[in-house]
Amino acid sequence: xxxxxxxxxxxxxxxxxxxxxxxxxxxxxxxxxxxxxxxxxxxxxxxxxxxxxxxxxxxxxxxxxxxxxxxxxxxxxxxxxxxxxxxxxxxxxxxxxxxxxxxxxxxxxxxxxxxxxxxxxxxxxxxxxxxxxxxxxxxxxxxxxxxxxxxxxxxxxxxxxxxxxxxxxxxxxxxxxxxxxxxxxxxxxxxxxxxxxxxxxxxxxxxxxxxxxxxxxxxxxxxxxxxxxxxxxxxxxxxxxxxxxxxxxxxxxxxxxxxxxxxxxxxxxxxxxxxxxxxxxxxxxxxxxxxxxxxxxxxxxxxxxxxxxxxxxxxxxxxxxxxxxxxxxxxxxxxxxxxxxxxxxxxxxxxxxxxxxxxxxxxxxxxxxxxxxxxxxxxxxxxxxxxxxxxxxxxxxxxxxxxxxxxxxxxxxxxxxxxxxxxxxxxxxxxxxxxxxxxxxxxxxxxxxxxxxxxxxxxxxxxxxxxxxxxxxxxxxxxxxxxxxxxxxxxxxxxxxxxxxxxxxxxxxxxxxxxxxxxxxxxxxxxx
Length: 528
Description:
There is one protein chain. This protein has helices at 53-71, 75-91, 93-104, 108-128, 167-178, 192-203, 219-232, 244-256, 279-291, 311-324, 342-352, 402-405, 421-429, 444-453, 492-495; strands spanning 13-15, 18-19, 22-23, 29-37, 40-51, 136-137, 144-152, 155-159, 182-186, 212-214, 237-241, 262-264, 269-273, 301-307, 360-362, 392-395, 412-418, 436-440, 458-461, 496-504. The protein has 15 helices and 20 strands. The chain folds into two domains: 13-266 and 482-498, Aldehyde Dehydrogenase, Chain A, domain 1; 269-461, Aldehyde Dehydrogenase, Chain A, domain 2 (3-Layer(aba) Sandwich), CATH 3.40.309. Helix 9 (279-291) crosses helix 10. 35% of the residues lie in helices and 20% in strands. It has a seven-stranded mixed beta sheet, sandwiched between helices. By secondary structure, it is α/β, with parallel strands linked by helices.
């Protein structure tokens, strides 16, 4: 992956782990890492000090020490802190979005939308500080009250990927803090500068020291640190966004300590095009779902499942739209920019080897990296400076192909056909993921049948497979997650535990199911 070097004058930041308001002591630092601008590979964005397992465990211990005082802060006051965080992010939205674009190559318009999602999340949870409702429950005995309360779980360890370096962490951090928990956040190393900026904004919203901590570490040291913290009893909940493979390891680790993690994992998201679909609308949705953010979303389109009667027409329109799409420098109005970093580029090149002789590749005859020697018409900028890749559309995909069964994180969309609707549903469920699925149809019966039978956590009708809103549950099933949900009121169940209380003021011991009052019914009565 050679690249022609360009001169860069952008500043490089130094990023360190912050625990209880202070940098972790030097003895916890394991190694250094540099994050680079994937659009200009010679431009260092941040020099990151990574900590080892002991450093991660120390952060969890510090969070444990500070959590009780924060839990004792009235929930409406915690809500006002979240309100301040939202205003700080909103006031810094353009600068934060520009940093996201610089560090991971996400087009600026999408990065600005990602920052907007943090603000929306904060705005939603402002009021939840006044609505952490319990219930009063009628007792079966007199002079006795039954009540329920939401209690914070304690310390939440949040481990997030870098494709959404600020929005997805906020999905965990904001409700976790609102519920009275302390947080230890481990962001992706290649998005450390974006994470550090978000941490600075959130930490200035009035949070006590130790309630929000940020730790930079690689994957293996993070896993080892989690093992230490779980054994020490200083982590009470794990929130993880990343690959299904790592999610399995996290789930096994948490299970050994009788914990249920919040897992948001990968997807192989289907989009079904029915005979009565608006094909132009379906093309627009598939283009954004498949190639927005360079296909580097967990909700990105994996396989188009198109009815055979419209397959040729749809494929011609879709490939024409892909060919006409603008790709390039992410600071401009492009469909997508570079891949996240070299590791993801190398992995994408491996996915391209899964293309078999029975497949038909549409667009560029030799998919791969865009360079001056391997150009793309209409490319914006200098392709040799970054990790830019041709969009790939592969038709003739079969249910036993790796391209059909496995997530291909990058700008690659498979296409297959179906004859009967039952076959489309079977194909949609076959890979075993269950994050997002979409159907394009003008028939209500088809839409609701698809919703009922497709095993995805999120269903779209006449819309993209991508697109979350702060007040709607987000999450998947099967290989896409363990059924936990983020966003909206549903996420409160991840960061609180129900506690029940019975208060007997009768002045005597009343035994449940034994001392209950009874009425007498005449069950033998019949109308004359």
